[in-house]
Amino acid sequence: MNWNFVIFSLVKIAIVIGVVQGMVAYAVLAERKISAWIQDRVGPNRCAPPFAKYIPVVGPALIRLGIFQPLADGLKFMLKEDFTPAGVRKIYFFLAPAIAVIPSMLVVAVIPFGSQIGHQQMVISDLNVGILYTFGIVSLGVYGIVLAGYAAKSKYPMFGGIRSSAQMISYEISMGMSVIPVLLIAGNLNLSRIIGWQSAHGWMVFYAPVSFIIFLIASFAETNRLPFDLPEAETELVGGYHTEYSSMKFALFFLAEYSNMVASSAMMVTLFFGGWTLPFWGLDHPAATLGAGLAHILIFLVKMLLFMVLFIWVRWMFPRFRYDQLMDLGWRRFLPLALVNILVTAVILWMKS
Amino acid sequence: MIVNRKPLTFWERLYLPAIAGGLKVTLRHAYRTLFQGKKVTMEYPEQKWAVPTDYRGAPYLVKDQEGNTKCVSCQLCEFVCPPKAIRITPPGDTGLKADRTNAEKMPAEFEINMLRCIFCSFCQEVCPEEAIFLLKDYSLTGQSREEMIYDKEKLLALGGTHGGIQKWKHKLEEAKAQDNFPVKV
Lengths: 353, 185
Hints:
The complex is a heterodimer of chains A (about 350) and B (about 180). Chain A has one domain (about 90-350). Chain A has twelve helices and two strands; from the N terminus they run ααααββαααααααα. Chain A has about 350 residues and is mainly alpha-helical. With about 180 residues, chain B is of the alpha+beta class. Chain B has a domain at about 65-170: Alpha-Beta Plaits, CATH 3.30.70. Chain B contains six helices and five strands; from the N terminus they run ααβαββαββαα. In chain B, strands 2-3-5 form a three-stranded antiparallel beta sheet. The longest helix of chain B is centred in the N-terminal third of the chain and has 20 residues, at about 15-35. Chain B is elongated and about 100 Å long. The chains are: A mainly alpha (about 350), B alpha+beta (about 180). At the A-B interface, α1 of A face α2 of B.
């Protein structure tokens, strides 16, 4: 066994999981702050540990920004009573949050979040079938939600679970179809190679804009975000599939939703926006120095954050789609569009070759 | 009633104009909140609403201009109080006398249970001495039930002084004037 590989992999896993968790925590804060600004409010601006206000200048500013709010949120989730309602199907009830969280964490394994530092490639697992792996894992995420709906002895989670399964299936197909032109153009399933192709030819979004639009909208549906947040429609279903959950189990669903957001952002950046590359300052080639390697990671994170902001922004912009409109959009608009897109791309590529 | 729904045009069915509109509206609001300070939030403990002049807040005892207790322990407010939030202990035969001239007595103890009080202002209405007023204090907080029973010192301290006629001072002056009226030689 190659111990070097094991150690570096473990370090990378630890860092990536840590960063994703941090991003999730602060995505919740960003969600609250951005929603507040859009709705003419202030947002969380009080929460602070006792020492924070003695930090000169930055301390009060950080408190106003609510930087310490995620810590308080996390603590609150830990300290809340973990209540198991009467009549739930216990095993599934306990299993569902885990099944929701694990796939959302696994997706980031194949995403190249940087070029390389030294001789280490900045990707946990450079799979040759990266995209297939991603789609396979992402589609498991729905089971957590469906199980949660099935386990709780309550009609609202049930409705949430049913809606979620229907929605996931209809959008996953369009999502998968929308990526095929990208694969056709890049000629590879490996995400690192796709980035390599993009650094040579330019960002994929300019070659496959229709794919990008379908992928973007489908990922909104995949992550249960507004305008497609039917499984957890608060105004209709109380809380949707996680109505009966409390404390850390509820937090896990939250974690899953936001990790999915992080993963989808990462996928979009990787597939359509060149991953860690930037077309100028010579940043589009694998890094030779430590500084360039870190810069690549930073570029990737910034691109991801922009997509996260888009996710959050869109949530406070649109009303929710009706169930039939959602199905209509998924099956009758995006699926044909994606198929036509594949065909057109294939024909153009064939003509060129 | 039948509402005829106009079928959406192709342009509308693309959702694109609606998306652009949504982006515009949300951006405008975020910009205004962030850079022009046009927020609707009032940050409560630091900022407070202006309370209307006839607002009925917590009932407190007031002192007159000379710092004397106005209450004469007549117990009318105690009787009229619908939730029985007021409890007055009169001074009794040997108790302390009023700290102002021409008033017979003042309460030895005067308690208002702010948890029971319904802020109806009957006590203020009924008080013949204008000694109790519903002031504008609406934020009553405490750590325990006992703490929410305000005693005389607390009520007087919170009530402050109340300008206005000093009924018994007038009476005193009138009485003195009367004593002197048929000018004695």
